[in-house]
């Protein structure tokens, strides 16, 4: 029997009840035999370190019913929505998924209608990036009457677009989201669902009563027993990098446009925390998210060339028995090489950026991320969580 | 009356009884009206952070009788002996000093004889650097019968050489050194003199009984009330820099020759301290000092172009009444610009490397080094030791 897979693009930062609800929906709304997730690694789309590392988050996903977790490489994961979406679609398509399920504010959005009214000049897309988002949304509204405002509607649109550009290998399964909006900052009383943002804030503040109501037990246990990281943990390193780097070297890093390197460098010395730093550099011109991604470029010393390639490999983070069977089924004809163990060659070449993101994380947590790590196997999990000396 | 100055090139890391003894010798053996010191700043010749910052060390020198302290810029201070010596001679000559006094193991060494037998091919000097030291010493021994082995004899030779190359503006005053050898690691019982190396080790170990016997009271008090720094304090930053930098970027830093950047990068992750790191990278091929200077290049992200220029300015760190009078006397015709206050232009251009060295120090200590600092005035010292927020 040939297994058929539904794919999800996620961060699971952390895995919460809304994610669990989404998994149950995927099972009822598709004929998939398993669920495959392309998940961000140690740095996430908003330009932040993940609260828990990629292995811990893969573990949480497997416990809650995901069958196979593959890393969305940093080159796609820490990017504006359209590049994030494109990278996720490439990974899932390369893994032979048949469906792409995603949560959205308006699951009844007419993607066909939107796709039919894209700008016909391909150069418009080539030039497209976050800066043009407003113009682009305006164009679509004029053409179709559909307003793309909500964060996950926009992401859904980019999934549809990336899928179309890849020759439509995936069948789209838009799903309603349960609970709060993506950007809600707080967990509401008696809620069973909350945004990941609100959950991260509560977890970092040790507000476990609030967190308990909106995440599975295993996520709660993991959050309570793990060294959680936020930008504040990396602030001394970012500050040092901004201070010691020549401004021309900063300017050569990814997304460091319009002289923002001067602004970042100037704000580094007086700021005593990442929050104070962000407060100092924030203007109407730059979104918080964009500034955080630029800060990530500085911390990881990311060069433009490293970020221009889409996903080049399929790094397996974890699987259960069905996931393993599926890997066996596809391994002969996957479109990108499967990487189950990060050898020296991968760490130094194709995987250099992911490896670096993990190394910098490990400077704070002491937990190795790529060197010697093998995929999480569930339920027979023999996780190798080697402490750095 | 025209004041006549004797110059000393020093690190005062920290100022000890041997330095005090040297000052008394200079007063008796020259007709100088004042003593001017060209002193290393926040990073010293062996490629280490100074134990105390340049302002604290200038203060200690002034208390003990030095009249004027000028910074030996990092471009000369963190260099092999011949470049260190050349920079010091340039600074003292530019300040109009008439004598250059220096401690040496063999004050009766015949510098005239050595100078008369230098290799005649100028290209030999151009190619000269530490790597060729042994060959060069062998050549001089063959030519003159004089063996240059001891550290301060070699330094003295380079002072003589630099002075000769500058047209002999300074009269050399070789002085006997009191007490222990430069490299003695421990303070001997009942000693009144000890090497700066031994004193640093004792001070970092809070062994104040030992330190007390070999330094002036003011040095002791300063050491006991100051946050002393060593490489260990900067290890987390150096480690992060080695891990996050591309090996090609490391290779483009100053003195990063023969692929040593691979060696440094590889050793960074497993090492849990600077000492362990140095132990891992040390081989017969590289001296400890050279490796520390390379580590300094990485920490301060020093480019070769920044280090190729000799001193470009005379940064005044402190003075007493006589020193001030002398500054007034020479200010119209100094060969390099006097810098008493580090303005924004100096910090960003000519003084960028010194400024960066101070900023990185201040990340550990919280004490600003250049921004807003004014020279130490003794005895009416109104030191501005502004804490960073």
From TrEMBL, chains A, B:
Question: What's the main place this protein lives?
Answer: cytoplasm
**Pfam families attached here?**
HIGH_NTase1
| Gene Ontology cellular-component annotations | cytoplasm
Locations listed in the record: Cytoplasm
Could you tell me the superkingdom of the organism this chain comes from?
Bacteria
Q: Which UniProt keywords apply?
A: ATP-binding, Cytoplasm, Ligase, Nucleotide-binding, RNA-binding, tRNA processing, tRNA-binding
| Entry-linked InterPro entries | Rossmann-like_a/b/a_fold (IPR014729), tRNA(Met)_cyd_acetate_ligase (IPR008513)
Reaction catalysis annotation:
cytidine(34) in elongator tRNA(Met) + acetate + ATP = N(4)-acetylcytidine(34) in elongator tRNA(Met) + AMP + diphosphate
Single GO MF descriptor: ligase activity, forming carbon-nitrogen bonds
Q: Which residues bind ATP?
A: 9-22, 103, 152, 177
Major enzyme class: ligase
User: GO biological process annotations for this chain's record?
Assistant: tRNA modification
EC number(s) reported in the record = 6.3.4.-
Family as reported in the entry's similarity comment: Belongs to the TmcAL family.
The record describes the protein's role as: Catalyzes the formation of N(4)-acetylcytidine (ac(4)C) at the wobble position of elongator tRNA(Met), using acetate and ATP as substrates. First activates an acetate ion to form acetyladenylate (Ac-AMP) and then transfers the acetyl group to tRNA to form ac(4)C34.
Recorded hits in HAMAP family, A to Z, give:
TmcAL (MF_01539)
Record-given protein name: tRNA(Met) cytidine acetate ligase
- What lineage does the source organism belong to? Bacteria, Bacillati, Bacillota, Bacilli, Lactobacillales
Q: Which gene encodes it?
A: tmcAL
